[in-house]
Specification:
This protein has about 280 residues and is mainly alpha-helical. The chain contains 13 helices and no strands. Mean pLDDT is about 85; it is low at about 20-40.
Amino acid sequence: MEILLLITIVIIALAIMNFKDYLYNPHKRPRIENSTFPPDDDDEFDRKYDIYATPTKEEKIRNGEYGLIVGILSKLAHVDGRVCELEFELIENTIEDIANQILMQSAMHQREEIIDILHEIFNNTYEDLEELTYSYANFTKGQYKRRLKLVEYMLSLAYADGNLGDSEREVILDVAAFLEIDNGDFNKLYDDFANFYSNQSNSMSVSEAYKILGVEIDDDSEKIKKKYKSLVRENHPDILQHKELDSSIIETHTKKLQDINEAYELIKNHKKIEHERNGEKTS
């Protein structure tokens, strides 16, 4: 009986010693191999879940209000697998507008560096739309007009090629729902764009197209494209400006942009026909 008691005491003492060693030497603890967290790219994972890690410049922008806008627009632009030239130019102008805003608010970045980061966000946004939109909603609490303006701008981008695709519609509907846009406000925006584009007619002449772009018939394609980009820049909606919140994108921008785009496409086709007629190669 005494021997059993002695053995029990020894076992308990060893257990206590091992437990203390486990507590005070965490590096000796067994690693959990079947973790539910992503196993690859340990450095990135450690940064994401380390609340004391200093965020990189890209992380600051990506997780900020402006980076979230770019991420949301990225989801819309890539959902149908194609981006028309006007949509591309509008997004490029918005990225430049955002870069200018970030530059004014922080001396930590150079403009070109900011633009590169914003392009990286636009080309590589892995968060889902719901996560992006709810994060943006946290930045715009009590700022309903800014939320509504983003949805309106998304409609203008989706309609840049003249048609609203089903997949684009679903993205915009989801964003409007996540941002708690009033049904009446959304329906008005939706109907305004649908009515505008349903009444569009392609009746522009070649001579009118040259006048609208402000170019000559003998100007080369490079000069014409440069003028087109300049006019889109001049007439694009800057959704970050406070004065834009109470104005209609259709009334102040869309009509002009569609005329500019129609003129550019008409001139491109005219140039192509002329080149083919003369037996020249077209790019």
